[in-house]
Structure formats: C-alpha cells, structure tokens
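Q: Structure for this?
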Amino acid sequence: MANKIRVTAWNEFRHEKSNEYVKSIYPDGIHGLIKQFLETNDDIEVTLAALDDPANGLPDEVLNNTDVLIWWGHMAHHEVPDDLVERIRHRVYTKGMGLIVLHSGHHSKVFRGVVGTNGNLSWGRDQKEIVWNLLPSHPIAAGIPDHFTLDIEELYCEPFYVPQPDALVFGSWFEDGFIFRSGLCYLRGAGKVFYFQPGHESCPSYHNEHVQRIITNAVRWAKPAEFGYEIPEGAPMMQYKPIDEFDK
Amino acid sequence: MANKIRVTAWNEFRHEKSNEYVKSIYPDGIHGLIKQFLETNDDIEVTLAALDDPANGLPDEVLNNTDVLIWWGHMAHHEVPDDLVERIRHRVYTKGMGLIVLHSGHHSKVFRGVVGTNGNLSWGRDQKEIVWNLLPSHPIAAGIPDHFTLDIEELYCEPFYVPQPDALVFGSWFEDGFIFRSGLCYLRGAGKVFYFQPGHESCPSYHNEHVQRIITNAVRWAKPAEFGYEIPEGAPMMQYKPIDEFDK
Amino acid sequence: MANKIRVTAWNEFRHEKSNEYVKSIYPDGIHGLIKQFLETNDDIEVTLAALDDPANGLPDEVLNNTDVLIWWGHMAHHEVPDDLVERIRHRVYTKGMGLIVLHSGHHSKVFRGVVGTNGNLSWGRDQKEIVWNLLPSHPIAAGIPDHFTLDIEELYCEPFYVPQPDALVFGSWFEDGFIFRSGLCYLRGAGKVFYFQPGHESCPSYHNEHVQRIITNAVRWAKPAEFGYEIPEGAPMMQYKPIDEFDK
Amino acid sequence: MANKIRVTAWNEFRHEKSNEYVKSIYPDGIHGLIKQFLETNDDIEVTLAALDDPANGLPDEVLNNTDVLIWWGHMAHHEVPDDLVERIRHRVYTKGMGLIVLHSGHHSKVFRGVVGTNGNLSWGRDQKEIVWNLLPSHPIAAGIPDHFTLDIEELYCEPFYVPQPDALVFGSWFEDGFIFRSGLCYLRGAGKVFYFQPGHESCPSYHNEHVQRIITNAVRWAKPAEFGYEIPEGAPMMQYKPIDEFDK
C-alpha cells in the first residue's frame, strides 16, 4: 500500500539487553513490541532504530522517510548527539514530521529541544496508576474509556514543568497521593508532538490494549499535514507588490 | 455508503429570496451551494434546513441524525427559538455533534450559547480580504496555501470578543486597515465548533475553491469522535469502591 | 481607601440555616467566612449577598459596583432568575467584572452561561483530597506550596466536561482513585473567570490557609482590567476612512 | 525602594554605533531609550547590557540579579555563546526570570531555545503598521486603545512558525496586504516570556507612547512569581510515604 504512515520506532534499547526481567517483558525490545501492535493496522508500517545502531539508527535516509518518530530513552540521553537532535527538530518544524515521546523521554534532548522545556518532574516507586480520559473529543482518545488501570507503573508526578499543552488528553492518579498530566499534545512549527507517560521498562504497560490504542491514535494524529504550500526553511523576504497586484 | 458524514446545512434563507442580487449569486441559497460542493466528496451527505421550514428545519428526527450542523444566519437570529438553541447545545455537549458557524452567525444564539460569548465585533463596507494561514499543521488548513484573496467580502474586525480558541487557524487582512481572527476552533463538551468569517450574502465567497476546501476540511474535523464510553447527560454519582477493587 | 477591589460574595445560604452541622462549620455562612478572610487584606472590601435577599442580593446598584463576584450555589440553581444570569453575563463580557465560581457552582446557570459548558462531572463520598500546584508561575498560585492536603472534601472527578482552560492552575488527587482539574482560568469577553473545586458545605475547606490564599489571589487576578478604550456593548459599524486618513 | 523590579535591557548595540541614521533615532542605543522610559516608573530599575560588553554583558552576577531580561538582537545572533543561552534558559525555567524578546529577536538563540521554535516568518519593506488589541483583559494590554498606528515599521508577516501562545494579545495589519501576530505570551517552566514585534532599528517605534506602555506592562507581568516552594533544578525522587502519613 503506497500511502502507509511510515513510523520509525527509536529505542535506547539497552535495558532489554542487560536486564533479564526487562527482557522477559519485552523480548524484542520496547520498540519491537510497538512495531508489532502498530503493524496490526493496515495503514501503518514501522522501521526499528536504536541508539547503538550505526548513525544511532537515524541516518538521513531513515529520518527523511519518517512520517512519525516514536522516542523511548532513559539512561543514555547524553549519548544522543546534538546534531541528531537538531536534525529531528528541523524535520518536525519544517517538514511536519510527527514526534511521539514516551515515558522517560521527558528528559531527552529531543523532547526538551523540540518543545521548549527542561522536562523536570518528580518520580518514585512503581505503583498502581489510573489513567483518566480528560478530552474524549480528541482523536487520540478515540475508543478509550473514561479511565483504565495499570496495575504497576512508575510514579511520575506534578509539578511537571512543561508548557501548557495545546490539548491535555489524559491525566493520571497514583496510589501514593500523586497526579500527573500524562497525555499532552503540542503543536511545534509545522509538526505535532505527543507526550505519553506510561512505559517504564520494568512494567508491562505497552502490552495494555488501551495504551496500544492511544499510541496508534497518536500516530494517525501526528502524521505530517497535507501542506498547501512549501513550508520555508528560513525567513524569506517578501517582494513588494502594490496591493492592487496582490494575487494577480 | 453507510458511514457518510451526515451534514445538515441550516440557512436563514431569506436574503436569497428577497434580494435579486443575492439570488443571482446563490440561486439555490447559500446552503444549496454548500450542499453542492460538499457532496462532490464521497464521504459526505448533506440535508438542507431553513428557518422557515416546519420546526425551523431542525425537528428532533433531523437533529438526532446530524453529525455536523452548519449554521448561516444574519437578520433573524431572534426568531430562532430558545428551545432549539438548547437542543443544539445539548447535542454538541453530550453527543459530540460538530458545529460550523459561518460569517454573521457570530451573533446567533447558537454560537453565543454554545461557545460562551456575546460574539461582538466591528464591521464595515465590503472590500478586499486576504486570508492568511496561521496553522498549516491543522487538519482544517489541509491543502490551503499560505494565503488567498477574496476580492470582495464584508469587513469584520477586531477586537472580536470571543474566548481564545483552542486553535487559531486563519487570520484576515482587510483593505481599510483592519484585521480579524477569521478561522477559530473551539472544543465544547464532547463536541467541536469551528467559526469561519467569510460569507456575506452579497459576496461570492462560497464559490471560492479555498473557502470550499476549508468548509470541507472542517466537516471532517468536526464530526463526532469515536467515544470509548457513554458521555453522561448529567452529573452521575460514583459508587464507592475500595481502591483494591477498582477495575476488577 | 478609594481603590479597594469591591468584591460581592454571593451565597445560596440555605444549608447553613437548615443544617446544624453545616452551621457549626460556617456560623456566618460560607460567604461570611469569605468576607472575613478577604478583608484581612487592605486592598479588598466585601459585600454579602444571598439568594433569599431582595432581588436575590444582586440588584443593579450592587452588581454595577462589583469588581469581582464570588458565587457559591448548590441545590437551588434553578431558582436563580434567567435575567439575573444575563445581567451577570453582560457585566463580565462588557465591563470586565471578575467571576469566581466555587465548588457546586459548576452546575450553576451563571457558570454554564458565562463559560459555555454544561458543567457536568462525576462526584462521590467525602474523602481525602490533595491539591497539586500545576502552574506555579500563575498569579493565582502565588505563595502556594507544590501541594496541600484537605483531610475531607467532596469527591469531584473527571471527565469534567468544561472547555480547556486558558490556564490550568490546580489539579486534585482523591483517595478513591479519582483526579480532577480543580483550579481553572477562563477569559470571557472583557472579563476573567476562575473556577475552584474545594468547598462542600459540610467540609471546612474555606478555613484552610491555602484555600484562603488561592481565593485572595483569584480576586486580585480577576478584577477588571484597566481598559484603554470603551468596550462596546454591541457590534458597531466602522465608518469608512481612506487608509491615509487612519488615525489622523 | 527595596522591591523594585530589576530589569536588564540587553542589546546587540551595533547598528546604533555603525549607522548614522539609526544613531539619530536611538543616540543612547535602543536599550538606553528603554531604560529611560521604564525608569519613569517608581517600581522599575534598569541595568544596561550589550553584546560587546565583557561576558556579553550577562555574567552570573548580573543574570542572577535580573528579574526580567529584555532582549534585542538582529545581525549577530550567532555570536551569542551557547552557554549564555543555556544559562538564560535555566534561569527562566527554574528561577522564573521573565524574558521579553523584541522584534528581530524572533530568530535569536534565546527565543528559539526558550520557547521551542525556529522563529521563522517572512519580512519585507518598511511600511505603515496598525497594531490591534486582541485581548483587552490581559495585563499587557492595560491602558492600550483598541488600535494604534506606527507610521513606519518593518514588515513581519505570517505564517509565523511559533507555538500557539498562552495569550495572543496583539495582532498587526501591514499596508502591503500582510498580518502578523505581534504580541504573544508564553509560559515556560517557572517563567514567563513575551514576544513583541515592533522595533526595527531604523524606525522610531520605541518612542511611541503605546509601545512604551506595552513594554512597561510586560515587565510587570513577566517578573518572577512569588513561589510558595522551591522550584527544583532537576527531577527529584519522592520518598514513599503511606498515604495516611501524607502531610503529617
């Protein structure tokens, strides 16, 4: 099918190789499972990429053929080269590439640089999380009930020092007394960004049917728009035209 | 086709009957032309409704089978019954019916009641308008160039005393020194609302290809979401469950 | 002091007369306590008003001398006359009167009519609530810690079918597994609106120091702006001027 | 007066030294004029800083004593060191320092890095600009009429590829057929950012009374909030406490 949405699922992909318990949950990597459930949809195809791949998995020939980039990183944010961050930022801002940042990616250079934030939050022990649907009219909430429960997930909590989102789709309750804005949409340049909180490497959240639906919805929402003109890469000068000649 | 988007195009439909010049531009009424260009799309079907129809064109059997309601009114806002406004408001808020309000509908009871505004603005003589694309990543801007010109349109100008929109998609320049936020998205309850400024009865704006594309895009954007649960009509009490039993 | 902020604290004021327990918490009424803590500030003066007062406590001579209206209602929303709602709405939209809606006022005609919402939410048994500070840079969060606890408050929970706010200042955690957006700012017409969730009649939340600070902050935030021109009451026509004559 | 708002007005300050015409408009530099009109207010004191000063005018002892930083840059954006940008970004995000970016600063590293944008726009010949007041209830619009005219200003025009602002306060009309969102508020981390478009070096806009009032208003709006707790510099771990012990 010619017009599938081309997703690249990027994963730091180290926990799954170094930790037996994580490996038991995600034997093909978190990105491997994401590919698997996304590709049950006819309109989506997924390429895998990892930090330790050549060119960190994202050489130009991959990035330039990516409609939506999914990003999972945790302990090695500092190993991601600045020029890769800049290339991603450029592609989101001027080509409209979608960006979906998962869980600990809140502190990635990519999220911080694209959205404009330090991504700070507080965190704590794994516990029960209940995800609440705050905006059922939003495309990313399609098919999602008013709430669903993750029996075990890492605590992330407010204040989350991010910009107020263009749409706040999900919010979460945590057992120990904390809440978190867990699903946030940002429009940046010509592109769209979605941050989603669940997905600690030692928790099986990406196996949850609602989490899978949310990520699938986000891919469709974040794909590049059909632009009616060429988005400029810089700040072009407008040639003066007398107003009577405008659009003639 | 079973799953077409069911649009009802409501028009005050008096100018086109009383004024020969208006009739020459819109011989089938503004709503008639809207039906015509929307139905060139396979996924949209349009029902016509007018103020002077029985039940003002919107008895329950029509309204309950409407996915997106388009509203054009001007001189007879006060003739629209309050209970019809309330039925529309209810359907937007709890069923997710989309609402597209055109031009002078800024002062309709429907727009004021659904969005929460008095809809005040200033206005003046017909003149050249240039519509600028402020948010090319938005679905309603799909296929629209960075700007397009309407040679003659009624002046609407700021300050426009509406709430800040969830998305500001278009802004307009007017020859005499004025600007106007001309394409605005509002999320209200379970529904979506789009206001679009062009469309004075004596101007041929609905014949413009970009205006037609914008309204078509807006229909697709505003259609009811796929809700994953039943949106309540009131404020239900939650039965207490010990948290250990939540979602069991 | 000439330039005090003139607050009118409106209360349904029935629970405190009919229920001994409520009376023990708020012997002077909820509005009486609000007056007491607000007037510990030199820049604020408070007038009391209640549903059963003549003209429902809000004749024109009161409303026209109100900078910020505080609204607490619960069981008698339907007894508030529609024309009073319309007068409040008009004063917010065109005079910039501030409006602070508390707790069960989410279902008042005033909140619904001014903001554009049905105000629906879910609710349940009284329980522990923890209020989280989501936007410490906002004036309404001045002096508020990152969180504070209310040992007992009525459960209000998501989905809350309100418009996305201009600023989401507070969010709340509830013991039984629920969350709620509990402090929301809306700009409407020339005015400002703040909704704050705590304050069930049988809970002592208005005695809490942080709740008092939040309401005090909200009064200062919501007071009418210093307008540099006269806000119009309708939609005035702009006289045509050749652009060369503009502002001459 | 102990509690004055401490403004640092930073200027690239080269045009005023190299170009006689610019020098004739701003003999003390753009920042010099800004200092002059801001200090007519009792509550504001201004320190001057320039690109060619030691440490680019912003050593730690200056930056750490700045409540609001005003930024004017144009041709030498690339000469601003990355670590200075990072120090500003950190101070906005975690100390709540206000940031006011003027005119060509849309392309500065500071604006791009703090807000999350490439700052792209189009531009053209100097011409008449009319600034419209889109949000008269906002503190930055205090005392500003519904519009005012700048007889000559550089054309900046849409699409402006910035994030949708938290508040859109001003919009501008330009003679040649263009519009621009010219006054935008962003909340970022614990800080506030205002971008304002007028102020080309060869135009006398900073002598305009309304422009002066807007910048004065913006200083008061952007000053650091009164935080009720210490904003963290990173992502602290929350120690587990049984919920019954929360806030005991």
